[in-house]
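ok trying this again, last paste got cut off
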Amino acid sequence: GFDMADVITFDGTELPCPSTQSYEGQQLVDSARNAEGKVVAQKINRRQVKLSLTWKALKPEEVSLILNCVEKFSGDTRYFDAKAGRFITRKMYWGDYSVETYWVDENGRPKLFTNLSTSLIDMGEGA
């Protein structure tokens, strides 16, 4: 089958394989209109990537691993870049996250979590 192991590493920590990973290119632009009303736009930096990640089902230790990475806020992130067509490493920071408790044991301790979603956002460093 298709093996997505090591699909994303954050500061050297391999994250569990996401259920979905969407890739968005964001271009910062400095724009204004000139005297004729035409848009004059200047690119700022290179196009920056936002990776939106979701995990459908995770064990508590997997959730803990991901959220401890999120808590570090920023770090070197290795991922498959759609534009480059290969794995690259960029400095990225974590966006907000949400996660749901799915199943708890008789003591109320979560045994399974679902729908963890978060994003990694390019900090614009490097070419």
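PB: full thing came through this time. The CA atoms of residues 58 and 64 lie 10 Å apart.
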